[in-house]
Every structure is written in structure tokens, then in C-alpha cells.
Amino acid sequence: MRLKDMQFHIDLGSGDYYKVANGKFSFRVRGESHVIGSKLYPVTAKERASAFADGVTEGGNHLEVAEWLNKSNWEFKSGYCYTNAEILQKVFTEMGIDAKYYSGWVFTGVGFPIHHAWVVVDGNVYDISIHVTSQLLMYEQAKAGVDVRGREAVKAVKESMDISRPVQEHFVWGKVPDHMCYVGNEDTAESARKNYARAIKSAGDVSKHPSYAHMKKGDAYEMSPYQKLLEDA
């Protein structure tokens, strides 16, 4: 739904929030306030930007596409959202379904948003780049007081990520989970990559960008510390 047609405020506690008012998506995370569409958080056309969340999306559709993926040799790879969205859009299109490539920013429920790409069909989100099942497992570990970076906890998450079928159960397939929110607009993979580059350039260095502070100075891309733990588990 277009931002200009929405209005909401989600309290994250400790003064942090996500909100949409007067066609603008703003947020406060860890005491820092930012706006989607700013130099640090660019989108291709902020005046036409849309948000996708739990209350405005629905699941249960296009299961034939999910079944095609389930039977294919597609493998889940974290960190390849621009390419994954291209692949998924192509599958939808080849099955005669009008699918739009979107890019922007995704909030996963913890911390700052990350730059991302996904597919939109009839106002619903299809995203094979974020493994929701393992994400929810991490939240459960944290709620239970488990050290999420501990060896056994990381091993459990990695084992969860190895299970990618059925895709409609382990990824975002139409309905956006209530802990997530997508903000962006119709785009191309090339433009999406350029927007990411603009965001980093505006920060002066990737290590200075709020969403990528885990990276080292001068790096173009680097796994987060947690992703490194997963790789070594």
C-alpha cells in the first residue's frame, strides 16, 4: 500500500518506533532517528513508495509457483537478495503471473533495516532471501534467555536454515510476518544495487552506515558477525 494512503505507529520500546504519517516512513532505532527516502536510506522514487506489513498482505496464493520451486534445484543462499528476486520474478512471469521487482528496506524486527529486494504480486510480498523459520527460532532462543551466539544455539539455527522446502512455509510467501515490514517501490536489480551504493557513499564508508556498522572500513560487502558464526558452525 502506498505510504500516502497509510498511517500507523509501532512502538518498539525504549522510545524506538516505526511510523508512517503524511506519506513519510520514519523510524527510531537505538536512539537514532531516520527517514526512508533520505540520503542514508534511499529508494528509487520515494513519492511512490509503498509499505508491506502484516495487516495489508495475505498468504495462501500462488502455491503453484511455490510447488515449482519445491521441485526445482533452487538452493537458498543468504546475502543474494537482488539475484534471488530476479529469479523469483522470472518464475512468476514464465507461469503467466504479473510479478513486480521491488527494492527498498526491510525491517526484520531487530535493529536497523537492511537494503533488500523482493517480489510483489497483487500487493503481497514473495521473498526467498529471508529464512523466516530460522529467524523465529533465534527470537525464541533470545526470549528463553539462551545465548544466541553460543555454539549449540548457532548450530540449531544453521540446521533450521538447511531446511528450505516447502518454500511457502519457510520464507515470506504473500503475507508479511508481524515482526517484519518492507518499504520500497517497483525497481530493477541494477537500480537496486545503485541505491545500496548511494546509501554507503552518503555515509562516507560502509562501516559508518547505521545498518552496516558491523562491516570493516572500506569493505564493499562482508558477512555479519552472526553469519560468520553460522558459516563456521
Radius of gyration, in angstroms, nearest whole number: 17 Å
**Main β-sheet, spatial strand arrangement:** 5-10-6-7-8-9
> Total number of β-strand segments?
10
Uncertain segments of ≥5 residues (pLDDT<50)?
Answer: none
Residues in β-strands, percent: 15-25%
The biggest beta sheet reads: 6 strands, antiparallel
Given the C-alpha coordinates, what overall shape results? globular
Number of domains: 1
Enumerate how many helices there are, as a single number. 7
What does this entry look like structurally?
With 233 residues, this protein is α+β, with helices and mostly antiparallel strands. It has one domain. It is 31% helix and 23% strand. The protein contains seven helices and ten strands. Strands 5-10-6-7-8-9 form a six-stranded antiparallel sheet. A four-stranded antiparallel sheet has the order 1-2-3-4, with no helix packed on it. The longest helix is centred in the C-terminal third of the chain and has 15 residues. The chain starts with 7 loop residues before the first strand and ends with a helix. InterPro entries: Papain-like_cys_pep_sf.
